[in-house]
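in:
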């Protein structure tokens, strides 16, 4: 369950994931998040949304094993709905935002991270392909060269480095509190202006995200049955370096 959606301060709502400590997502959770987000689009009293989660980590991604291409595409249909909401979103990132969890954070307009947060597009270290439209959002945010380095190496980025390279926007010991501060600043602007400006800024993004999700689903499905993907998962569970063989 995503948990309670409620007004936190004037014109700001909180949308909270409640699957601690890791907040893994699946189709059901993304559907619930998207439904809640679009319901807030119809609430004239809300101008900005804080996306957050209970527990130690923001989101450790999803387990796609055994899902197949059709299942991945169902998940990504819900992911696209998160991108297509009309009101600004600020994500509060504590702990880990890993793989698809990073993709979820990147669906927001802004990210406020704890200094010790760990953000990583670790797909290549799992023998996998990036998803959740990171093919678009990562280079759009940090530049193509930096995005390639992060995707090829799969290395983790701290909250401090994330702000330094533009992956996150603000640093806060209490990222939820920091996200609320930013959301309140945004919500003090004219509501109709916010919706109109956001629609203009994200018009191209939505088309690119739709195409990227389609390509990513096919690429991920092609790698699900490989020996390298099985090895990457085993190495992650056993906390050891993977031994890839290219098949």
């Amino acid at each position: 369950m995503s948990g309670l959606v409620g007004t936190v301060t004037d014109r700001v709502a909180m949308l909270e994931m409640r699957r601690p400590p890791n907040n893994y997502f699946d189709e059901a959770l993304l559907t619930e998040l998207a439904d809640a987000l679009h319901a807030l689009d119809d609430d004239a009293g809300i101008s900005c949304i804080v996306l957050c989660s209970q527990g130690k980590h923001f989101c450790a991604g999803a387990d796609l094993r055994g899902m197949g291409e059709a299942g991945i595409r169902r998940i990504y249909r819900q992911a696209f709905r998160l991108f297509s909401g009309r009101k600004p979103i600020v994500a509060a990132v504590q702990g880990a935002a890993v793989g698809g969890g990073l993709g979820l954070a990147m669906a927001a307009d802004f990210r406020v991270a704890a200094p010790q947060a760990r953000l990583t597009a670790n797909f290549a270290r799992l023998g996998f392909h990036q998803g959740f439209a990171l093919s678009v959002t990562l280079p759009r945010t940090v530049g193509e060269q930096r995005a390639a380095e992060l995707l090829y190496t799969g290395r983790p980025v701290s909250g401090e480095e994330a702000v330094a390279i533009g992956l996150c926007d603000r640093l806060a010991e209490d990222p939820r509190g920091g996200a609320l501060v930013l959301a309140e600043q945004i919500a003090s602007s004219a509501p109709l202006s916010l919706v109109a400006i956001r629609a203009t800024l994200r018009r191209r993004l939505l088309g690119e995200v739709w195409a990227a999700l389609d390509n990513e689903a096919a690429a991920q499905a092609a790698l699900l049955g490989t020996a390298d993907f099985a090895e990457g998962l085993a190495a992650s569970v056993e906390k050891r370096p993977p031994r890839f063989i290219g098949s």
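note: Residues 56 and 193 are 36 Å apart (CA to CA).
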